[in-house]
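TICKET: design request
STATUS: open
ATTACHED STRUCTURE:
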């Protein structure tokens, strides 16, 4: 059970638990920062005008490149990313 919870998915994407933790954590922090910028922009539209959009574009590029380096195909619908 523990092996399935902690190691099956990282192994399926060609990573160790530590590698997966590091990559997924960095994606999560970037998403949180982009989300915070979007809320700031919602409150004060003159601030953070492109911050969230740039975060999304960077994340997309990182995910595509990460999967390419791992030899994994990107989902053509871009809605089935597995971090």
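STATUS: resolved
RESOLUTION: sequence designed for all positions
ATTACHED SEQUENCE:
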């Amino acid at each position: 059970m523990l092996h399935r919870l902690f190691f099956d998915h990282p192994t399926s994407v060609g990573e160790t638990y530590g590698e997966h933790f590091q990559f997924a954590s960095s994606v999560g922090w970037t998403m949180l920062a982009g989300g915070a910028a979007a809320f700031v922009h919602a409150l004060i539209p003159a601030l953070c005008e492109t911050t969230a959009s740039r975060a999304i574009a960077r994340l997309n590029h990182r995910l595509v490149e990460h999967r390419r380096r791992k030899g994994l195909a990107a989902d053509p619908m871009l809605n089935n990313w597995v971090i």
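CLOSING REMARK: Helices lie at 2-12, 17-43, 51-69. The radius of gyration is 15 Å.
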